[in-house]
Amino acid sequence: SQQGEEDPQALSIQEGENATMNCSYKTSINNLQWYRQNSGRGLVHLILIRSNEREKHSGRLRVTLDTSKKSSSLLITASRAADTASYFCATDAYSGNTPLVFGKGTRLSVIA
Amino acid sequence: DVKVTQSSRYLVKRTGEKVFLECVQDMDHENMFWYRQDPGLGLRLIYFSYDVKMKEKGDIPEGYSVSREKKERFSLILESASTNQTSMYLCASIPGTGGLKNTEAFFGQGTRLTVV
């Protein structure tokens, strides 16, 4: 099944820096979503970007989508220690009634 | 707020036991899902359901079954638990009929199952 692949697998930055995570996928999609997971917990939805959108903002989050390259990026600006978590992208296939397929995630560590 | 509740945070079971993982959502969502999460493998879909009494296999259904007798409850069943089913299990629900387009998923807090 199709799957988003996040890059890098792990990222360590200082508090106040920006964090950028990337996601690549294989087939046409309706939308791409980003989720966050604190250690040992469930996933929490962050942002959804539709296939006809190129950029979306939510607070300190900025998501871009390039459907020609089948890729997306998540930027977290002015990171905080509380942003330490794993981040996943999820996609659905353009055709059919398919459920969300998740990538393997990027583990972000923000050091105070 | 939408709430998806999984019956246990931690569970320890013996090999060969029949195990039930329960998931309940309180927002009348049509679609419910079971994923398992393992280090280095991300989230993998086990089963999902679009409606009561309906079920569809995901990517890794072997060794599992599901039950959806009521709209709000989606149960994952390990018929005979094995050590390779030790994992984090995540339940999710998505609102809407006629497809899953452009809607976010709501997750439970996860059940960490250990089979010994």
Detailed description of the structure:
- The complex is a heterodimer of chains A (112) and B (116).
- Chain A is 0% helix and 57% strand.
- Chain A contains no helices and 11 strands.
- In chain A, strands 2, 4, 5, 9, 10 and 11 form a 6-stranded mixed beta sheet that branches.
- Chain A is globular and about 40 Å long.
- The model of chain A has no long low-confidence stretch (mean pLDDT 91).
- With 116 residues, chain B is mainly β.
- Helices cover 0% and strands 51% of the residues of chain B.
- Chain B has no helices and 12 strands.
- In chain B, 36% of the residues are buried.
- The chains are: A mainly beta (112), B mainly beta (116).
- At the A-B interface, strand 4, strand 5, strand 9 and strand 10 of A face strand 5, strand 6, strand 10 and strand 11 of B.
Keywords:
heterodimer, A: mainly beta, six-stranded mixed β-sheet, five-stranded antiparallel β-sheet, B: 116 residues, mainly beta, seven-stranded mixed β-sheet, three-stranded antiparallel β-sheet
Secondary structure blueprint with pairings:
The complex is a heterodimer of chains A (112) and B (116).
Chain A: E1 5-7, E2 10-14, E3 19-24, E4 29-37, E5 43-50, E6 55-58, E7 61-66, E8 71-76, E9 85-93, E10 101-102, E11 106-111
Parallel strand pairs in A: 2-11
Antiparallel strand pairs in A: 1-3, 3-8, 4-5, 4-9, 6-7, 7-8, 9-10, 9-11
Chain B: E1 4-6, E2 10-13, E3 19-21, E4 23-25, E5 31-38, E6 42-49, E7 56-57, E8 64-70, E9 73-78, E10 87-94, E11 106-107, E12 111-115
Give a nutshell description of this structure.
Chain A has 112 residues and is an all-beta fold. Helix content of chain A is 0%, strand content 57%.
Biggest interface reads: A-B, 26 and 29 residues
Share of β-strand residues of chain A = over 45%
Q: What's the gyration radius of chain B in Å? A: 13 Å
Q: Order of SSEs of chain B, N→C?
A: EEEEEEEEEEEE
N-end to C-end Cα span of chain B: 37 Å
Helical residue percent band of chain B:
under 10%
How many individual helices of chain A? 0
Which range best describes the helical content of chain A: under 10%, 10-25%, 25-40%, 40-55%, 55-70% or over 70%? under 10%
Largest sheet of chain A: 6 strands, mixed
**Low-confidence residue ranges of chain B:** none
Helix and strand string of chain A, N-terminal first? EEEEEEEEEEE
Mean pLDDT of chain A: 91
Estimated structural class of chain A: mainly beta
